[in-house]
From TrEMBL:
InterPro entries recorded: RNaseH-like_sf, RNaseH_domain, RNaseH_sf
RNase H type-1 domain span: 1-61
GO molecular function: nucleic acid binding; RNA-DNA hybrid ribonuclease activity
Designated name of the protein: RNase H type-1 domain-containing protein
Provenance organism: Araneus ventricosus
CDD domains the record matches: Rnase_HI_RT_non_LTR
Entry-linked SUPFAM superfamilies: Ribonuclease H-like
Gene3D superfamilies in the cross-refs: Ribonuclease H-like superfamily/Ribonuclease H
Length: 344
């Protein structure tokens, strides 16, 4: 699956092997070949699948491909990360290890700046609550509760900040303590099966522009893990028409019906883009007598050249309009003649 996704998203910085495959594919298409890539789930243990894997591995032994720098770097980074994690796992008596047992960023906040802030809140060390240790001042005391200020006291306990909780969470009774009380089920090992591969991939490749629902899901996952739960997400192919699958789909839809989530802007944008693209394509299809339409019947870039600049160049070549052959129309000059063939 990852190989096909890489080939479908051309980039000059993509893996050298992928670039070589695209080059060969482009050459074969010019020779008249029609090649379609199709993904099928792996079936380990099936004889036909094992034979195909053996043949593929045998064919690759004849390739003399240098190891790309990106692969070497990835191997080094993975090794260093493992060594770092192993050393950190030995610090069982360290308070910080209890707060953050893994060296990766918190799943909900992969951005470094936000990760630092969240870590400081979880360990309870902030400038407001601990700067007295640096400047030799007295410990700050809450004037309402007459107790030392702490992150827990400010965010959860102190009644003076109740209005702030109501403002940020739109509830009169909600406190941050309620947010971490997710489930009354006993902590155990759970597996969540989903037939949406795109959702699982989105959860495993989180970035700052990810869908808000992905952040919410990982937030719940992170808090459940902190409570001792072990949750594994597993993808299964969709089986339409099978009774068990239909029951699971209905249960999932019923569960989502009680969620009060606003529609993110990116969903509106995606829908509007699809609608505009469809209207654009329909209007272009009505131009059947237009010469460029016969050359490029779709409004999307050429499949092999998703880069805008390269797509523009190849489009001009296909329609036959270039600066050299058509500049005379702009400059009021005579059409350039071929000195060998005596034609335009």
């Amino acid at each position: 699956m990852s190989a096909l996704q890489t080939l479908s998203h051309y980039d000059i910085q993509m893996h050298p092997v992928a670039l070589k495959i695209l080059s060969i594919l482009h050459f074969l298409r010019k020779e008249g070949f029609s090649i379609i890539f199709c993904w099928v789930p792996s079936h380990v243990g099936i004889s036909g699948n094992e034979i195909a894997d053996s043949i593929a591995k045998f064919a690759s032994t004849f390739l003399t491909q240098d190891i790309p720098y990106s692969d070497v770097k990835k191997s080094f980074v993975s090794h260093l990360h493992t060594t770092w994690q192993n050393n950190w796992d030995l610090q069982m008596n360290n308070k910080l290890h209890f707060v953050k047992p893994f060296i990766d960023m918190w799943p909900i906040l992969p951005i470094r700046e936000l990760d630092v802030k969240l870590t400081r809140l979880r360990i309870g060390h902030t400038r407001f609550t601990h700067k007295h240790l640096i400047f030799g001042e007295r410990t700050p005391v809450c004037p309402t509760c007459h107790t030392d200020f702490s992150v827990t006291h400010i965010l959860i306990e102190c009644p003076s900040f109740k209005s702030h909780r109501e403002y940020h969470f739109n509830s009169q009774s909600l406190t941050l303590q309620d947010l971490v009380e997710i489930s009354n089920y006993p902590a155990d090992n759970y597996i969540i099966y989903s037939d949406s591969l795109s959702v699982i991939q989105a959860l495993s490749s989180l970035h700052r522009h990810s869908h808000p629902l992905a952040f919410s899901i990982l937030d719940l996952h992170d808090r459940l893990v902190c409570k001792g739960f072990s949750i594994l997400l597993c993808w299964v192919p969709s089986h339409v028409g099978i009774s068990g699958n239909e029951i699971a789909d209905i249960a999932a839809k019923n569960a989502s019906a009680v969620l009060d989530n606003s529609t993110p802007l990116k969903d509106f944008k995606h829908y509007i883009n699809l609608a505009l693209h469809s209207r654009w394509e329909n209007r272009w299809n009505s131009q059947s007598m237009n010469k460029p339409h016969s050359i490029k019947p779709v409004v999307t870039p050429w499949p092999i050249l998703t880069n805008r600049k390269a797509d523009t160049i190849v489009t001009r070549l296909r329609v036959g309009h270039t600066r050299y052959t058509h500049r005379h129309l702009l400059m009021g000059e005579q059409a350039p003649m071929c000195t060998q063939c005596n034609c335009i």
